[in-house]
Amino acid sequence: MNTMTLWHITGWEFAVLALAALLVGFSKTAVSGANTVSLAIFAAVLPARASTGVLLPILIAGDVLAVLTYRRHAHWPTLWRLFPAVAAGVVVGTLFLMWADDAAVRTSIGVILLFMTGVTVWRRRTAEAADDPDAVVTRAGRLKARSYGVLGGFTTMVANAGGPVMSMYLLSAGFRKLGFLGTSAFFFLIVNVSKVPFSVGLGLIDGSSLLLDAALVAFVVPGALLGRWAVHRINQLLFERLVIAATVVGGVQLLVR
User: Fold this and answer.
1) Cβ pair 141, 77 in contact under 8 A
2) What are the TM regions of this chain, as residue ranges (predicted)?
3) Crossing angle, helix 102-126 and helix 48-70, to 10 degrees?
4) How far is Cα 43 from Cα 66, in angstroms, rounded to an integer?
5) SS3 139
6) Quick check: 170 and 73 in contact, CB under 8 A?
7) Residues 6+ apart with CB under 8 A from 191
8) Which residue, 24, 63, 97, 167, could crosslink 33 as a Cys pair with Cβ 3.0–4.6 Å?
9) How many CB atoms lie within 10 A of CB 92?
10) In what helix (H) or strand (E) does residue 106 lie, and over which residues does it extend?
């Protein structure tokens, strides 16, 4: 029995999943948050809960490529501030998945994404972003890091949708393009790898999901190469607008699907 028969998917559906995997690679090296479109595609083709388990290893493959590309641009003080809150969010997300159905998951994540986008746009219109990420090491900055961290951990656990939340945090903290990509690359590699035991325990990752991953992961590489080529041709303002737009699209898709 081949992988497509095992998952009861057609050739066209596999092609759509392959395109979504390519988009994961592109989002990891160019426009973070764009992989919410991939999330929607996987959930449309596969059962919604099962799709999160299939998508996670593909995201990890994209994270590895992003780290190899932008490892010199990561801002570790920001990462260390975020990790404890993210860990708490992952635990809350795991508990949530134990009882929530697909509709509750989609609605919760969609509302969070749109709310965070609105907050970020409002903040950027009323105050200039910090030139140096270290400038956010204040009481308000720590509170913001914890709030975004918990929400990021929660959303990434329940729907692999933490990218837009963290994108909004990094933009609001004043990160420039390469620092944004380098910091988010390490962040999501560490967080996504840490989610694997939870996903296995919930039955979201198993032998059949890994077989489908093996067939799809090769499509992440050309997407990452395309993103690496494109990112140097996108100016900072356009980059920020694309990240915000991708977040809005992802949030709306989750609410209306």
Assistant:
1) no
2) 49-70, 82-99, 105-122, 148-172, 178-198, 210-231, 237-256
3) 40
4) 24
5) helix
6) no
7) 86, 90, 152, 153, 156, 162
8) 167
9) 16
10) helix 102-126
